[in-house]
Design brief:
The protein has helices spanning 2-6, 58-70, 97-103, 109-124, 160-175, 182-195, and strands spanning 8-10, 19-21, 27-32, 36-41, 47-52, 79-82, 86-90, 95-96, 137-140, 143-146. The protein is α+β, with helices and mostly antiparallel strands. The structure holds adenosine-5'-diphosphate (ADP) and magnesium ion. Residues 30-31, 33-36, 38, 48, 50, 77, 89-92, 96, 135-136, 147-148, 150 line the site of adenosine-5'-diphosphate.
């Protein structure tokens, strides 16, 4: 905990990932989101520590509440505890779908079905499953694991998942098993953000 408290996380404009400072040697940064940075601690290998950027810490309680409402589900990571500016969640193995595309790792149809079922599950718990983009879903043993539920208390659909699903159905067969260049993934992301 001490080490997590020493880290500073700062957000950046234009939906760019956060910046971090003060990371001690017992921690490894395993992901940068637009609101938070996620750390693996060598002394606590089953957990991941999601530390929110200054000014974004209101989201900690929101995300903790979403996890409480979700209960136990194989589709989502588990939240064990929440503090002022960070959450303790289950460390989840696997690559994000974003990394799968870049590395040419096959994303099976089952992942799409899992996310659809996960959304259904969340809706049945009175939540609004959104912000489902490539970096918020892991491929784990051929199945999907959703690792970011921070926006599920918000209203409206952002249609991120619908776009991804359409892209998968229409274009994934063209790339299947081949590496997708990062500029193409970034271009599609920018087009989505502009259209919004
Ligand atoms: N429980 C977890 N296990 C492993 N990696 C994770 C976990 N949670 C997040 N990550 C990694 O950290 C990145 C950022 O976390 P995320 O929760 O999406 O932050 P943000 O809310 O800022 O988008 C993810 O894209 C993923 O690569
Ligand atoms: Mg995220």
């Amino acid at each position: 905990m001490d080490s997590i408290n020493k880290v500073t996380v700062t957000s950046n404009p234009n939906n760019e990932p956060v910046s971090i400072d003060g990371v001690t040697s017992d921690l490894k940064c395993i992901g940068l989101g637009t609101d938070a940075a996620v750390f693996y601690c060598y002394n606590a290998p089953n957990f991941a520590f999601k530390k929110y950027a200054k000014g974004k810490t209101i989201k900690v309680t929101k995300e903790a509440e979403v996890y409480k409402n979700l209960g136990v589900s194989p589709y989502f990571s588990t939240c064990y505890a929440s503090y002022e500016d960070f959450l303790v969640v289950s460390f989840e193995e696997g690559l994000t779908l974003f990394d799968c595309l870049l590395q040419g790792i096959h994303i099976p149809q089952q992942v799409i079905f899992d996310v659809e079922n996960a959304r259904e599950y969340a809706r049945n718990k009175g939540l609004n499953p959104r912000d489902l983009h490539l970096k918020n879903i892991l491929l784990q043993n051929g199945r999907a694991k959703i690792i970011d539920v921070s926006e599920y208390l918000e209203a409206e659909n952002d249609f991120r998942w619908e776009y991804l699903r359409k892209g998968y159905d229409l274009y994934y067969p063209l790339f299947n098993g081949r590496k997708v260049p990062i500029w193409l993934v970034e271009l599609i992301r920018k087009i989505y953000l502009q259209k919004r």
